[in-house]
Amino acid sequence: DILVDGKVCDCDIVVTCQVGDPVPLQVKLTNWSKHSVGPFALTMMPYQDYQNGVHNYDLQDAITFVGSNTFYIDTVKPTKDSVYLGSLLFLYTGDFYLNIKFHEDNYSRDLPLSWLCLPSVHIRATEPVA
């Protein structure tokens, strides 16, 4: 589950926020399997989609994370969840997206690391209301 500014997000919803206001971000990973899973790394990467196949990830002047954009998850037991909280601060107006990726963080395997990517979250940063 992904919540931006307290609102549940999926690929069909655009969350609107104001430039200059910290936007709370919550990602909850629930283990619905019968076995413990982990370790994982959760990485959040903001980008702009120019609608021509180009994604701009060079946004350090437009967005900043309050805290880290990477979280490490040791183990999630069956039917339990793990919640990660952070905040985004938008410095300019525009339409932004957030890639959220989980990848296995277990180097003892002989197989390549596997990735699980959630649908991108669409966030629209608008001018503050006077």
UniProtKB/TrEMBL annotation:
One Pfam family linked to the record: Ig_TRAPPC9-Trs120_4th
Q: Where is the Trs120/TRAPPC9 fourth Ig-like domain?
A: 16-125
The superkingdom of the source organism is Eukaryota
User: Record's Gene Ontology CC terms?
Assistant: trans-Golgi network
* Name assigned to this protein: TPPC9 protein
What's the source species' lineage? Answer: Eukaryota, Metazoa, Chordata, Craniata, Vertebrata
Gene from which the chain derives: Trappc9_0
